[in-house]
Amino acid sequence: EVQLQASGGGEVQAGGSLRLSCDGFGFTFGDHVIAWFRQAPGKEREGVACISGADGATYYQDSVKGRFTISSDTGKTTVYLQMNNLKPEDTAVYYCATKSDSGGAGCHFTVAAILLEDATFPWGQGTLVTVSS
Asked: Where on the phi/psi map is residue 120: left (φ > 0), alpha (ψ -120 to 50), or beta?
């Protein structure tokens, strides 16, 4: 059974940093994409960043480029999201998710595919990030 556990959220002031962790179990990292999503109050869930287990390719939403960095520890199937220069608009519940990419569609495509099935996707418990101004 595929399981993902997100942690590391908290409350910081604008300009601060946090590092989120996503521990994965029950799947082979090499043929999966692992991605971070977030959902702010009253808004739809959106993709933030993802990393391909096959080739390490990454994708970032425009609003976080240059501030967030996604990385992986393949030995432990852990993916991190380093978030620097946080802004109040980054406040949200952050979720990590994974999907097989054995077909090689790539990171960005897989994020879009997950969002298409948002209502039925087996989201785990997210971690709350609150950025105060």
From this structure: alpha
Query: Pick from 4, 9, 97: which is nearest to 46 by CA?
Result: 97
Which residue is associated with the tokens 């996707």?
A: 121
Query: 3-state DSSP call for residue 101?
Result: coil
What are the tens digits of pLDDT across the range 77-124? 899 999 999 999 999 999 999 999 877 788 989 999 999 999 899 898
In 3D space, the residue among 63, 72, 70, 79 whose CA is nearest the CA of residue 131 turns out to be 63
> Exposed, middle or buried, 86 (CB in 10 Å: 0-12/13-18/19+)?
buried
Mean pLDDT computed over 5-22: 97
Distance CA 76, CA 16 (A): 27
Q: How confident is the model at residue 25 (pLDDT cuts 50, 70, 90)?
A: confident
Element (H, E) at 114: helix 107-116
Q: Which helix (H) or strand (E) holds 13?
A: strand 10-13
98 touches 4 (CB < 8 A): yes
User: Is residue 35 within 8 Å of residue 80, measured between CB atoms?
Assistant: no
